[in-house]
Sequence to fold (608 residues):
Amino acid sequence: MDNKTKFLIWYIFIAIIGVIALNHVIVSQYAPKDIAYSEFLEALEAGLIVEVSIVGDQIEGKMRDAENPEETLHFSTFRVEPELSEKLADHGVTFLGRPERTFFRDLLSWVIPLILFLGIWVLIMRRMSAGAGFMNVGQSKAKIYMDKDIEVTFEDVAGVDESKEELQEVIDYLKDPEPFQRLGGRMPKGVLLVGPPGTGKTLLARAVAGEAKVPFFSISGSDFIQMFVGVGASRVRDLFKQARESAPCIIFVDELDAVGKARAGQGGFGGSHEEREQTLNQLLAEMDGFDPREGVVILAATNQPETLDPALLRAGRFDRHVLVDTPDVNGRKVILELHARKIRLSGQVDLAVVARMTSGFSGADLANVINEAALLAARKEKNEVGLEELEESVERIIAGLEKKSRVINPKEKEIIAYHETGHALVAAFTPGADRVKKITIIPRGIGALGYTQQLPTEDRYLMTRQELQGKIDVLLGGRVAEQLIFDEISTGAQNDLQRATDIARAMVAELGMGKTLGLSTYPRQRKPAFLKAEQPPFPGKEYSEATAAQLDEEVRELLEDRKARVWNVLSEHEQILRKIAERLLETEVLDEQEFKKFIQTTKKESET
Ligand code: ADP
Ligand code: ZN
Fold:
């Protein structure tokens, strides 16, 4: 007998008892007061009886209270003498041959409880079909999706070649674990796919299963979070049990952050805190409990890796991360082409044009563009999709995305391109600065408009003054480039300036690298906001106001000096700054090699 029938039987049992009990309560509410027949006769003589109904020997009716004639009392009694009607008539009492109120009473006493329990039943059923899993406490089969033969392959995922490359190893391993085992290599148990929503994480995970031809178990982190404590944990247990039985296979956990949020932070979703904790612990225990050689690889997706509990990222768990990024202009073109295969596209359309219009779009947004365009064409009763429909569709989707502030207008894009190029160029011309690995101007959610990725050349434990200055220079490069090119500055440099100031302040106040303040250190003191101005200075400030002013002045001067140098560097290389920024506007991404080529050609030009 499965849980469902068990539950049904119990429910019916409880419902029957409940109906009877409620019936009893209602009946006794309406139950008349039993009185002796003699009492009834007395009342009749006294003219207190208002009305009666008689069935057989049973008499029920209403009588007035002797003391308080306003009150009526519902009574019942048994008749002893046969002739009553005359007496009743004598006293002017209305009488009936059948109890009037029984019908109403019966109706209430049976129907109300029945309706009540039926209602509860309907509610439960609705809950269950909504997936809240009221009944399958301890049993999760309904929610774990198992796909035996996935048709999706890497061909269906475009524009994320780097992520694919990194996942290739997982596929090789699942296809043939033997060589890995023989060499004693340890496969990662958990691979975390990190990237903004809609970039194809789920699709990639499925494609890995499709490529390796292994079953694909999937569950979403938010499914784990249920109303009942313990459900999530038992789901996890079940999931791993099932997966191990069909190894080699893939377990995919979507929305890992729903379960794996760092424990300290209070989660903002419905499920109880304790529930999430238990689910997370179970997940960790399961991951630790199996040998990667069993052939189960766990893939998980998240768009907020920074919120994850560090325990999840420890070695032997999700210790490998694969970035699945928003596609660049080429990636977008390929994704568009891929999805355009499903529709009838006019031969004249160049999808590269559409790719250029859709900066910041995710793979899902692009799939949407194609789909929407096909619908538009159908509405216009065209028989193929043209550029016109695609443009209209892009506009519609941009309007939707603007609300999420993921779209950047062309002017902003230009500023960002120069800003980022500024960082990169200063880095290239600053001795000892970290290598520029990548420059991008693809917007990535709220906050980061673009970024210049630098790779440290080696692990460092000490930093020289020159290196610290170099760091400040690179940070200032963005702002200075904006000023140099547009003679105007923007808010885009806020974070850079903050970090530059931080370094400068540390140099002056803590590292003895200032000009006039010497080797003394001046520990930072941040006066908490709740201390009012007239209260004594916050303890920890062990230097005078004069020193504080001097400190501020030195920090300011240091930053001004650095800015002057950065200005020189960038104005000297303004031509190349413009060239690279323009290139960046076209391609949105520049990798290390291409960037280096630009730098080298200029160097050569300036030498000749
Ligand atoms: P995520 O899991 O990252 O939120 P999905 O994998 O669910 O994103 O992507 C949703 C849909 O968007 C996919 O089913 C696919 O149609 C489309 N899509 C997203 N990224 C790509 C891509 N790189 N190549 C092709 N299609 C993509
Ligand atoms: Zn910047």
User: Anything to note?
Assistant: The first helix runs from residue 3 to 30. DSSP finds 22 helices and 14 strands in the chain. The radius of gyration is 39 Å.
